[in-house]
Records
---
Amino acid sequence: MTRTVLNSRKITQRTAFTFLGLATVITVTPVLFIIIYTITKGAGAITWDFLIQFPSQAGREGGILPAIIGTFYLMIGTLVFALPIGVLAGIYLTEYARDNWLTRLINLAIVNLAGVPSIVFGLFGLSVFVLTFHFGLSLLAASLTLAAQALAMVITTSREAILAVPREFREGSLAIGVTKWQTVRHIVLPQAMPGIITGAVLAISRAAGETAPILVVGAAFLLPKLPQSPLDQFMALPYYLYTVATQVPNMPEGTIWGIALVLLIVVLSFDVLAAAIRIKTRQRK
């Protein structure tokens, strides 16, 4: 009887592992296919001139330097505005706010905010940052718009990372007379930092690939110079890719895939950087 039960459990375990492995393969295969296909189609267009020159003839000639620089500016601006506010909000909601109907309503609103279509954030940025605050069509308005979109993910992941820190750490710190803020700053945040970094990278990676929000708040198709201040217009890889792929006739296919490959590399470079920071943080812990 006991052997029968053990055999049944082994079969159940193997079946579960098989289905989990199959689900993993199904999930990873399309991603690998997209990456390999993009590299295959776009690698031929990647040259030094392609990366450092300005575009000409509506993008058919020249390079994509302004789009690369504009995308990096946009990602950095989004990170600067979204990360501090999102982490501080996550700390307050987790460590200081009382568990009442108002807090639960705020948490529900944050979760729902993550599902708002990106074009709605674009219209919000146009109304608030461009027209009301008079920032104009600019890099600043676009960064603030994408930061508003990224806030939900940053707050949610920060809260989950902070909640994952064992309560014993807090109780031990408070028991020796350390203040609440010192406990949060020196005990809770270092333990939660890998999760916070992960959430920030996911938010910034999504911002790097957004087209709809920046379309109405400052992105331009072709510019003769790089942005000199936050109030200047800018070029960005996702909007530039969309435009040359759909609006420019006789656009070389290799150039389109080359732009897509550069955008993919930019996003993956942030992911690799975040992974390195997470590993280093865990080693310190």
---
Amino acid sequence: MSDYRWETQGKIAVVTLDRPERKNPLSFESYAALRDRFRALSIDKTTRVVVLTGAGGNFSSGGDVREIIGPLTAMSYSQLLEFTQMTGNLVKAMRACPQPIVAAIDGICVGAGAILAMASDLRYGTPKSKVAFLFTRVGLGGCDMGACAMLPRMIGLGRAAELLYTGRSMSAQEALAWGFYNEVHPGDRVLQAAMQTAHHLAAGPTLAHAMTKRMLHHEWEMGLDFAIDAEAEAQAQLMLSNDFKRAYQAFVRGEQPVFAGD
């Protein structure tokens, strides 16, 4: 049985981490399979948005203790490096795919599960959700799968340092106030809210969304002058698109634009 479900609903891919009896942990196989799925999105012309969620009232409990952590204690350095690079490549694939990723987060969202939420573009939580980066609790650093790079940019260095050193849970109220969550919804409505946003994005200019995601990622390491130049080139490219022309023609006619993604 697969650890997750990947279902297509029109232009939206809904990815559900699906081992609810164990709070949706990740296995060696699911890390690799999800990495390959997100990589394949780079050439997927049909899927415009991805929604990532978990089954059974939880998002994910992270790497499976029995199936991953136990075997890791018996591996050589080269084997361990192969594993950590694979998990990091899943995050790289999520950040590199052109489609926006909207995470709907309920219940437990810890360890590698918290990383997958963090690697998403938008995050909607619930009042009972708890996000924690638990790596220090098993004797590992908080520097896992890009956490030390991404989390400080989202919530600030001091707050990120506290969570990564202590492994404590970030409440939904903190996550919203600190900017980790975009919105908080009741548990029975959080997936619906994520889907509404996904439908809105899917109806928008696909090329423009892809460029926005690309530039948000690439400009992390740019100085302001380089970023301004890079954005000038990006916008000039998009001004050649048919969607840009459609938007202008719709404006002239007093209509809402219908984007085709070209």
